[in-house]
Structure prediction request, 68 residues.
Amino acid sequence: MTWELDTEMPMAARVCTIHSFKGLESPVVILTELDKLYANIHNQLIYIGLSRARHHAIVIGELPPAIE
Prediction:
């Protein structure tokens, strides 16, 4: 596991916030603690987090209800 986004380590798991992963992609994205997102921007952050996955998006826990 690494906190560095730019790594050449094979099989490395990158750990970061949704904010810092904006504009990037990964084959697999695992999202956790979505219940702790700021209510006023949680729809945007969930969209960003889920749309970064090229093949699989895994949510650990429950998705909070959408705010319209």
Notes: Residues 19-59 form one domain.
